[in-house]
Structures are given as structure tokens and as C-alpha cells.
Design brief:
Blueprint: H1 8-12, E1 16-21, E2 26-33, E3 38-39, E4 44-45, H2 47-65, E5 70-81, E6 88-99, E7 103-112, E8 115-128, H3 134-141, E9 146-148
Parallel strand pairs: 1-9
Antiparallel strand pairs: 1-2, 2-6, 3-4, 5-8, 6-7, 7-8
């Protein structure tokens, strides 16, 4: 059995890749927010966790599209909080705006029960990864993902 290399933050958020669309350069994920990551008596998701969900969705998309040659390092990330996120399932979709040789641009939307609760856009420095990181996605959080090829 292969070792689970999924980062602890992703386990805490129960992050799962649902769909990787190589044709449209998009990726869909789901997360489960518990009261542990909420403030206001466990009723509202703390904004940093909302940001992590969207940042991860954008990062995994870039890694997937570069065949895990590059990891994206955020130069900036701009988040707009549109509504309060609550404990429960959240769905995120990221898209590539532009992917160059050393810099990329991506966006993400986070939804809960059909309502958009946050959006993000990010400028990303593409840094070569030492060794393959494919396994933690392919064998763990993306093992049941639908793959749409170009």
C-alpha cells in the first residue's frame, strides 16, 4: 500500500478533486467545513480557510496541467468574500486565465448550497518541483476524479 502524502491541511478540510478538465483547463473540488474552522460560535468559516480552499484548487490545477513539473507559488491572491460560509460541504472550481513559462494566472469560485460565497484570483510563480508529487493527488484526493481530456 502506498503512503498517503496528502498534506494535513487537505485532510482537515476533507478536500477531494472531483473533476479535472484538460480541455477547458479547469478543476473542481469539494471540501467539508467543520465547526473547528469556524468562528462566531462555530457558525462562520474563518476567511483564511476559505482562501486555502480556493488557493489549493488553483494550485492543483496548475500542477496537473504542467504534469507535476511545476508547483505554483502565490505572488498574490485576491479574495472577495461575498457571503458567509457555514459548516458543511463547499464546492470550488478553478480556471486558468493564462499560463506562461514562468508566471501563471488563475481564478476560483467557492460555492455552498448553490450560493457563491467567495471568489479569488492569483498570480503564480511557476517553480520546478523536485521529485514527483503526482502520487498524493492521483492515489488520494483525486483517485475518483473524472478526467476530461483535450
Amino acid at each position: 500500500m502506498k503512503k498517503d502524502h496528502t498534506p494535513e491541511y487537505m485532510k482537515q478540510l476533507s478536500g477531494k478533486v472531483l473533476e479535472i478538465n484538460l480541455k477547458s483547463q479547469s478543476l473542481k473540488m469539494s471540501f467539508l467545513a467543520t465547526e473547528d474552522i469556524c468562528h462566531s460560535n462555530g457558525t462562520i468559516i474563518q476567511g483564511g480557510f476559505t482562501t486555502v480552499m480556493m488557493d489549493s484548487c488553483m494550485a492543483f490545477l496548475v500542477m496537473e496541467l504542467s504534469d507535476f513539473i511545476y508547483t505554483p507559488m502565490s505572488i498574490d491572491i485576491n479574495v472577495s468574500f461575498l457571503a458567509a460560509g457555514r459548516p458543511g460541504q463547499l464546492d470550488c472550481e478553478s480556471k486558468i486565465i493564462k499560463l506562461g513559462k514562468s508566471i501563471g494566472f488563475a481564478s476560483a469560485e467557492l460555492h455552498q448550497e448553490g450560493e457563491m460565497i467567495a471568489t479569488a484570483s492569483s498570480s503564480l510563480k511557476l517553480v520546478k518541483i523536485e521529485g514527483s508529487q503526482k502520487d498524493f493527488l492521483k492515489d488520494n484526493i483525486a483517485k475518483d476524479a473524472k478526467i476530461i481530456k483535450a
